[in-house]
Amino acid sequence: MNFLAHIYLSFNDPQLALGNFMADSIRGRDYGHLPQRMQEGILLHRSIDTFTDTHPIPRKSSKRLHSGYSHYSRVIVDIYYDHFLAVHWNRYHPEPLSAFVSEFYALLQEQREWLPAEVRRLMPHMIRDNWLVSYAHLEGIGRVLEGMNRRTGNKSGMQHAIHDLQEHYESFENEFEAFFEELIIFSRSKIELL
């Protein structure tokens, strides 16, 4: 899953959310200097990724894209799923998405000292362009996919994946909804074991 889902799946635990959010920027076991709950957020993130990568529903979504995007199809599905979480936010959280996101941006700024350099570089752009709220709109997802394509040296063709989303919108949406219910249950049970 992508940023929004990882933050949401921390269930309003700020330190857990920070670890869950920054986990992709942490290599191996290079997190012993972080507060315990942030470390647990990193482990939660990794468990969520493993669950997602091995689950048949996201695999089905990914397979629909594989011929056009090869191994990038899983990354694209993560972005699509964040779109559907943003679109249907009020089903999953009582607080409006914009308020939830504003609180998370404030948390990032307050806890900046703990963030890896990569995340500190990314943060001003994320906040300025309000990435997490923009996920709710196709144009926002289009910008994310264009940015991801640039990060691959324009090799992935991911900027075209917005058309695949539009063409198969209902199928991806149904797959997200079925999968996300299972992922919530998985994440809650994993947190209990941390």
Largest sheet: none
User: What is the helix content?
Assistant: over 70%
The strand count comes to: 0
Spans of at least 5 consecutive residues whose pLDDT stays below 50 are none
Tally the helices. Answer: 12
Secondary structure topology:
Elements lengths: L2 H6 L5 H9 L13 H19 L1 H14 L3 H15 L1 H4 L4 H14 L6 H12 L2 H4 L3 H14 L9 H7 L1 H25 L1
Give a quick summary of the entry.
By secondary structure, the protein is an all-alpha fold. Helices cover 74% and strands 0% of the residues.
Verbal overview:
There is one protein chain. This protein has 194 residues and is mainly α. It has one domain (3-193). It has helices at 3-8, 14-22, 36-54, 56-69, 73-87, 89-92, 97-110, 117-128, 131-134, 138-151, 161-167, 169-193. Helix 4 packs across helix 12. The radius of gyration is 16 Å and the shape is globular. 36% of the residues are buried. The mean pLDDT is 96.
Defining traits:
194 residues; mainly alpha
